[in-house]
Design brief:
This protein has 518 residues and is an alpha/beta fold. It has helices spanning 2-24, 157-162, 181-190, 208-221, 238-256, 269-282, 296-304, 335-343, 352-357, 379-384, 388-402, 410-426, 436-447, 459-473, 475-484, 489-508, and strands spanning 34-41, 44-48, 57-62, 65-72, 77-81, 93-100, 102-105, 113-114, 131-134, 151-152, 165-166, 172-175, 197-204, 227-232, 261-267, 318-326, 346-350, 369-370. A hairpin with a 4-residue loop joins strand 4 (65-72) and strand 5 (77-81). Bound molecules: adenosine-5'-triphosphate (ATP). The site of adenosine-5'-triphosphate has 14 residues, from helix 3.
């Protein structure tokens, strides 16, 4: 009897605790679908028994391994794994989570290098204060958008002067291998060092040496503390590479939706399309043109549609996208390039021939276009560059005709001299973006004819002098251009006088007869 009482005494607190836990627990049936792995390999698993699974649903393979439903068939679900799938075998249990894939977002990601799931790759510890958001929220609807009218300074003179990028715009950077595509996009990120725009660089299937070069360029010349780098390497699971641009978009949208401004560089969508094709073939979807599944256009359209300039009612934030695409032998009419060209608001075409001739950035001004137009350009630059594109195009044609000799008319020589100076001024080294005022000065110098007196071989030194000395020697011009985007009469005169003095320095040192228009 005594021992029974003792037992009761010991059991009472324990029973109370259990009673409390039972009372606190939500009571009700909780169904969890359990499926079974039928086949697994190459980052893909075919799973049976998940009749209720939804598209893009996150599936739990146990042991911290996940995948998401990409293809729903009558008898199986095609699932894309988010890791290599090592340790997963046919017959393993899989359960649906009822949720879609989510990634961390927030200010804590700024200055960090992460994988597409937001896991740190930079060894700087956990991401602070992050919350989870789905990787594919719907794109802003039409009424939530505003016109694209405010510029994004890319710092690359040929882009800012001739094509102009606007906040909320999607501009494709396209060209053959190693033609400077990444460099142009990175310069746009570096150029945001002093702006209110945060940047996201997402590398999909890029060689680690290239990714390291990009990270180093941003760290050395840009504002790494306001940049997020998302990396999915070539040896990562195809699923991880596939979600990379979507996850990075979600991270960038966080700023757009809070009235902020973001720029995303997607490097590159050709590799993403190849991953999409690989996944589609492995999950037995029927191949279409060039063996891509029929939905590859839709995948990229719904991704890029998320770049937008939001209306004032929605906070007035913006997300600008610079997707990159690779061509083969300059073929812009291949399947993925044509898709992307028709989705985006313009394209910057980089030409291998120009690159090999030493014209860098190798932008082909004939085939490049911005469908948003000059509306987004700062007034001062728009006015200075108004006829530059036409002058340059005419020069290129004239140059071709005069290559065989003959035409020596003074007007023709004048045009050739002007055109060759435009070409020289458009040349630019990597990681050296210009400020807006410097661009206005350079374009004005060439278009007003002042630079005709600078020998062609001294043009790059002249441009360098503008970069180095303008801030100190033409402060009022810089203040007006960068503050108001335009120059009043006094400002224009001050700019002309300053450029005139600079030109004299360069033409004074010129060899006899230089600058007379070759
Ligand atoms: N304006 C430039 N001036 C001098 N060198 C440049 C310029 N732009 C690019 N380069 C050089 O050309 C090489 C290729 O550039 P980049 O990696 O940007 O090209 P890409 O088209 O992105 O290449 P990939 O096809 O490998 O992605 C690099 O070594 C880069 O430093």
């Amino acid at each position: 009897m005594a021992s029974e009482t003792q037992g009761d005494l010991r059991a009472t607190p324990w029973l109370d605790r259990i009673r409390q836990r039972v009372d606190a627990a939500a009571v009700g049936p909780k169904a969890r679908q359990i499926g079974r792995v039928e086949e697994v390999g190459d980052g893909i698993a075919l799973v049976s028994g998940l009749a209720e699974a939804r598209l893009d649903e996150l599936l739990d393979f146990g042991g911290g391994r996940f995948g998401f439903a990409q293809v729903l068939e009558e008898d199986h679900v095609g699932c894309v794994l988010l890791d290599t799938g090592e340790g997963i075998e046919a017959g393993d249990r899989v359960s649906g989570t009822g949720d879609v894939l989510r990634v961390p977002v927030g200010e804590g990601l700024l200055g960090r290098i992460v994988d597409p799931l937001g896991r740190p790759l930079d060894g700087k510890g956990e991401i602070a204060g992050a919350r989870l958001e789905p990787i594919e929220p719907p794109a802003p609807e039409i009424v939530a958008r505003d016109a694209v009218t405010r510029p994004v300074q890319t710092g690359t003179l040929v882009l800012d002067a001739l094509f102009a990028l606007g906040r909320g715009q999607r501009e494709l950077i396209i060209g053959d291998r190693a033609t400077g595509k990444t460099t142009v996009a990175l310069d746009a990120i570096i150029s945001q060092k002093q702006s209110d725009i945060v940047s996201v660089y997402v590398a999909i299937g890029q060689k680690s040496s290239n990714v390291r070069r990009a990270i180093e360029a941003i760290a050395a010349h840009g504002a790494p503390e306001r940049t997020i780098v998302v990396v999915a390497g070539p040896s990562d699971a195809p699923g991880l590479q596939w979600i990379a641009p979507f996850a990075a978009m979600t991270m960038a949208e966080y700023f757009r939706d809070r009235g902020g401004h973001a720029l995303i560089v997607i490097d590159d969508l050709t590799k993403h399309a190849a991953t999409h094709r690989e996944i589609a073939l492995l999950t037995r979807q029927s191949p279409g043109r060039e063996a891509y599944p029929g939905d590859v256009f839709y995948v990229h359209a719904r991704l890029l549609e998320r770049a937008a300039m939001l209306s004032k009612e929605r906070g007035g934030g913006s997300l600008t996208a610079l997707p990159i695409a690779e061509t083969d032998a300059g073929n812009l009419s291949a399947y993925i390039p044509t898709n992307l060209i028709s989705i985006t608001d313009g394209q910057i075409v980089l030409d291998a021939k120009l690159f090999n001739q030493g014209q860098k950035p190798a932008v082909d001004v004939g085939t490049s276009v911005s469908r948003v137009g000059g509306k987004t350009q700062a007034k001062a630059l728009r006015e200075a560059a108004s006829t530059m594109r036409l002058d340059y195009a005419q020069f290129l044609e004239l140059e071709m005709f005069t290559r065989f000799g003959g035409l020596s008319d003074a007007r023709v020589r004048g045009r050739l001299a002007r055109g060759s100076r435009i070409r020289a001024i458009l040349g630019q080294r990597p990681s050296r973006p210009y400020r807006l005022a410097e661009e206005v000065a350079l374009v004005s110098a060439v278009q007003s004819g002042l630079a005709d007196d600078v020998p062609i071989e001294a043009i790059s030194a002249f441009a360098e002098a503008v970069r180095e000395r303008m801030g100190a020697e033409a402060q009022e011009v810089v203040r007006q251009v960068e503050g108001e985007g335009t120059l009043d009469e006094a400002g224009e005169t001050a700019l002309r006088n300053w450029l005139g003095r600079l030109v004299r320095e360069f033409s004074a040192n010129a060899p006899e007869g230089a600058g007379q228009g070759r």
